Amino acid sequence: MKYFLLMPTLIFFLLFTLWPIIKVIEMSFYQTNFIVTRFVGLQNYVDLFHNEAFIQSIKNSVLYLAIMPLLTVIVSVFVTFLISDLSKKWQDISRILVYIPVLGGGIILAQIWRWVFAINGLMNWVLSLFNIAPIYWFGDGYISITIICIIVVTTTFGGYVIILLASLTSIDKSIYEAARMDGASNFQIKMKIVLPLIKSTIALVYLLSMIASLQVFEYIYALVPQQYAATITYNIYVTGFKNSKWGLASAQAVILMIITFILSYLQRRISNESNK
Known about the structure:
The protein has 276 residues and is an all-alpha fold. The chain is 77% helix and 2% strand. 27% of the residues are buried.
């Protein structure tokens, strides 16, 4: 009976997860535009490391990895500590409020940010109040990547706050009471007691954000569809859907899958350590 109940999930996994992965790996050994197809072996993988666009996307992805996870942890921990000081009623309300942006579609939210950072948008209007000339925010790779990291963090940190709050509630309240009896301030309790106790959860949040930073697509697509801001994910889209080089795009997808698998493995190890 138990195997029968597992059948729908197993069938779904085989059809929509395992089979596409197998086909992508297979396609990575072919040169194809779905009109002409020929077997090229490992040539697609060799070509990738002579492909300027792919090399640029790797460099960009390293920048995303350097900025986004760290910023996510800082913002998530800061907001978590603010919410933890509220009463139970306001904590519940705050959970809902910070999670609302996570539920929003990336393309829809990107239109709001497009207006904010437009040449005649909100940010340049604020700068004009201080007699600063308008800035073309998405005209440079480093600035564009930084802005996209900030946008992604502000729209996704709510999910990580929920995880961190769950970890905070598992801490024995008597630890706080003992610290206060010893004269510790609220700030000292957070820095010297709470942070060490939730460090494994913070590491988990960092790793989850690392994986997410490799998969940034919709904000690049909507705000700055340029190679100087592209992640590997966006470069896969350009190579496959725009240039019809599906074999080359599949090879990039396989490399991204390997990187994601390694990060997921690290995430599981951290999760297992935190549960011991």
